[in-house]
Amino acid sequence: MTGAARPDHDHSPDRRRLLRRAVTVAVASAGTGVAATVGLAGTARAAPGDHLTMGTTNDSGPATTTLDVGYAGLTLRNTAGAPLRLVPGEQVYPQVQDAVAGTVAVDPAGDLFVRAGPPGGEVDSWLWTSEWATTSVPVRPTRVLDSRDPDLRRTIVSGASTLDPAGRLTPGNPIVLSLDHLVRDGRAVKGNVTVVGMTGPGFLTAWGSGARPTASTVNWSTAGQILSNFLFAELGTVGGYRSVLTVQVSAPTHVIVDLTGLLVGHPGQVPAGTAAAAAAPPVEPARVAAAPGEPVVIGVPNSPGVTTLTSAAPDGAATLALRNPTGATLELTQEAGRRPGMLDVGVVGVDPGGLYVGDGSSGGHTAYSTANATMLVPVPPTRILDTRSAAGRSRLLEGAARIDARGRVLAETLLVVHLRDLVEYGDGMLGNLTVADTTRGGFATVWGTGGLPVASTVNWWTAGQLLSNGVITQLGDYETAGGDHYPDVVGIHLQKSAAAVVLDLTGLLVHHPESAVGARPGPARTTAGSAGRRARARAIRQAAAPGAPVVGGQTNDAGTAETVLVGGSATAPTLALRGTGPMLRLFPTPESAVPVELPTGSLAVTPVGDLVLGGRDGRRAYVHTSRWANRTVAVPPVRLLDTRALASYSANVLAGADGVVSGRLQAGRTLHLTLGRVPSVPDGVAVGAFLNVTVADTVAGGVLTAFQAGVTRPETSSLNWWGPNQVLSNLVEVPLGVHDGDPFAFAVHVRAATAVIVDVSALILSRPGRGY
Predict the structure, then answer these.
(1) How many Cα atoms sit within 13 Å of 140 on the Cβ side?
(2) CA-based angle 595:596:599, to the nearest 5?
(3) From CA 586, how far away is CA 606, in angstroms rounded?
(4) What does the DSSP 8-state code read for residue 282?
(5) What is the pLDDT of residues 676-699, one digit of tens each?
(6) CB contact set of 317 (below 8 Å; sequence gap of 6+)
(7) CB atoms < 10 A from the CB of 209, how many?
(8) In terms of DSSP bridges, do strands 320-323 and 84-87 run parallel, antiparallel, or are they unpaired?
(9) Which of 478, 499, 607, 734 is the most buried if burial means most Cβ atoms within 10 Å?
């Protein structure tokens, strides 16, 4: 989305894509303290050429110790804790950003840095962890509130006494719902909210906790309506409740809330039986053979074959600790070829796609990072546009001159809204779009990049309407005629009708949550945080027994002591592993043996292949990998279905086309659809999608339900309407399944005849992107 021609500089579209990849926020401004402090073992003062002595601290000065190894050539095992610790460097940036591909380091804030990519295209990245990253967990559609039913009001933990005798919510009185039985310390909720039985015009706002934001989730213009809208809200805390949702209305109405998904740091926060899919079963680790060899000599290259170092170091101490105060601690030679078809549990390597971990049953799982994925981050609801007031138009870059005296945007007008001070180089946004005071039937389209798509976001069918719909869209960039550049903008185009337009922001798609700069007050600035901010700016600009020597090629047991190797410099890592395949293996540690608090930089692998990191302030965190995590990607809107022109979309229909008569899907019929033909899907395995579903030419009041293929249709609703000749839209998140062998499939069922239009605006993918 461009306002004027521009020279070839950092704001060009191609460069901006690189900037988005490199927006990789390095370090939060958390402190550098470690909750479980472990002192380094006594130093064995050694010069390059001396042996690496187990159970002590070995100092090689500025030299790098290199092992030329093959598959899993260095295997570390700790029966009582983490096998490896990368001691956070005091001065990591910007040195590591100039290092070779395969460089791995932990910064003072506890974030794991990896540099990877093809020659000449190396990219800095920071691995996602459960401490600050999010992943989407689809759940079986669950009704968590229906104010008409006393049994479905049991989730209300505050405000129940303010309901009227019929169970309606009353104006200005918030109710608080607890979802603690469905999620532990959840980040956000996704679903559908419906209002019915209202007594007059009004609006509903849903948020986590605290003061009510100036934003709305559902709007209605009169009594007697049934309206639904997509719900995405940050979860809050109230008293002893850790995952709550607050709902408030401005006019009496019944409220229904259906839950379809949760945003969490790790799927384990969702109780078994709630999530739609279970985790993979544990895999027994395979043994690595070792042959005798020579002592490992510090500060020089070694060719030891397979070296195994074993210990039972307790209380958070590691089998092997690497320390370099001024640079990287570990270099894993980046592999140019394909990974082996099967990787043992705990094998760790770096290829052009980033860092990966073996689980014993596949070719490994790639870690999600700030270079290859975008995450969905909830933010406090924020109004970024209201064309009815001068203050509400303050973010408009284009279109202000085509707003009439009543605040209505004229038909065939493009609005461009910037998100400066709310996000820095974001990839997409999620929110709520409302139209009011319409002059006739029409529709609006929201998008971020490229030309105006053949898709709609919200539809209306006559004058004087007030309607809302959820929206998820890419963000684009824009340059004004005066040369001012705005890297995060969204476009809104109205067709056929004038209308007042309101846009509320509820979530952002970013590479790191700190890119959501306006989400909440920032933490105190620290040295580590300053270094991280400088690193991000740079990235954006560039898109045996203790006392005995460790013997290469055989198993060495250090007992309960920690072996420490100190060395390296700003340009040389402490330890370099060179080879043609994955060279490092962390022997699996039982999860029960990994402390809840362990020194920052500690690394361990569980028997199922999860990589555990000693993160910020020594808290245990799980690195997000493709074994269980996912990423959300906004895509250019694509029309998947329009039953009024079914032949044009027949390639996307798997079954049920005979249920469409005269352009309407008939009552009680189901259409099975696939996203397999959508161009964006092959980039990764799609496990879910955000769909904008519209009904038109309705004949009577009805309900539409969109649901995963291969499962029983749930008794929840995705879109509701209350009469004939209506045009209504709703954003729906739906998990994807398999229908008769066809993947990426979902179904749409209606209880009353209606035309159905489906547009795809975002995907949930189970694999990271390449990011290069």
Answers:
(1) 13
(2) 70
(3) 9
(4) P
(5) 887 766 556 888 999 999 999 999
(6) 38, 81, 85, 560, 561, 562, 599
(7) 16
(8) parallel
(9) 499
